[in-house]
Each structure stands twice: as C-alpha cells, then as structure tokens.
C-alpha cells in the first residue's frame, strides 16, 4: 500500500474516489462542483495495486487552521491502520507548509473515527448541532 498526496482535485482518481465516498457515507455523492469550491484542497489516497481503498480530504479554513474534511476506508480494508496512516500523512504534509493546527468534526455514530482522533492527539474542544439536526463533536490538534 502507498499513499498518494495530491494538491487540488484528483481528476485521475475521481471516479474511484466518488465510489469509495458513496461506500463509506451511505451512498452520499461527492460532486466535482463541491470539490472545486474547496480552495487549497489536499487529497490523500490509499492505493494498492492501482485500486483506491481509502482517502482523506482537507483544506485551509479561513481562520488559518487546516480543516480535515472527509475521509474513509473501504469496509473490507478496515482494521489495518489505514485511517491512521492517512491521518499521519496529512499531518506531515500540512506541517510542512506551516500549519500549526488541524480541526475535524466527528459524529457519535462513527465511534471508530472518534477513537482514532483521540489516539492521534486530538482534543475535544466543542460540540454543536448541524443544519440536519445531527450532533457533531469538534476536535482540534495543535502541532509542536
């Protein structure tokens, strides 16, 4: 397995990215238009034998914090530390360009990701209810 780091929209990987996004997020679509609106998009893709099985997307937030937006691993590949590898690669990449802090949101329904965030040094800083009525947990990590 290797991790590809792509700045901007990963056009060459768009179809498999959209497929795995739908797999991870209960059929939800990831339209190209939504990706195009994310200035400074950073895409990390977990690839093996030219097949995509995990991803992590993020972009700079206007307050100067890097926002780790979306990520997931195909169910058949979970439990192998892939999400952790993607997270570590993302953190290394954003520190290289000067980010001091990363933020992400989590939901109680995705406990494995909550645990992964805590294991990797994130702190819970707040909670809120989103526009769809879902309770969200805000995680932040400051780099040394």
TrEMBL record:
Name used for this protein in its record: GNAT family N-acetyltransferase
GO molecular function: acyltransferase activity, transferring groups other than amino-acyl groups
N-acetyltransferase domain location: 4-144
Source organism: Lysinibacillus fusiformis
Top-level taxonomic group: Bacteria
Signal peptide start and end residues: none
Coiled coil regions in record: none
Entry-linked InterPro entries: Acyl_CoA_acyltransferase, GNAT_dom
Keyword Transferase: yes
Matches recorded under SUPFAM superfamilies: Acyl-CoA N-acyltransferases (Nat)
Keywords from the named record: Transferase
Transmembrane region(s): none
Pfam families for this protein: Acetyltransf_1
């Amino acid at each position: 397995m290797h991790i590809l780091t792509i700045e901007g929209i990963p056009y060459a990987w768009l179809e498999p990215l959209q497929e795995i996004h739908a797999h991870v997020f209960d059929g939800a679509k990831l339209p190209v238009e939504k990706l195009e609106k994310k200035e400074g998009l950073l895409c990390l893709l977990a690839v093996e034998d030219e097949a995509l099985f995990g991803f992590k997307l993020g972009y700079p937030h206007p307050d100067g914090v890097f926002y780790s937006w979306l990520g997931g691993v195909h169910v058949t590949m979970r439990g192998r530390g892939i999400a952790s590898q993607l997270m570590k690669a993302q953190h290394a990449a954003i520190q290289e360009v000067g980010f001091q802090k990363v933020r992400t949101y989590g939901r109680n329904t995705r406990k494995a990701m909550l645990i992964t965030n805590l294991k990797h040094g994130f702190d819970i800083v707040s909670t809120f209810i989103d526009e769809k009525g879902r309770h969200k947990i805000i995680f932040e990590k400051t780099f040394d």
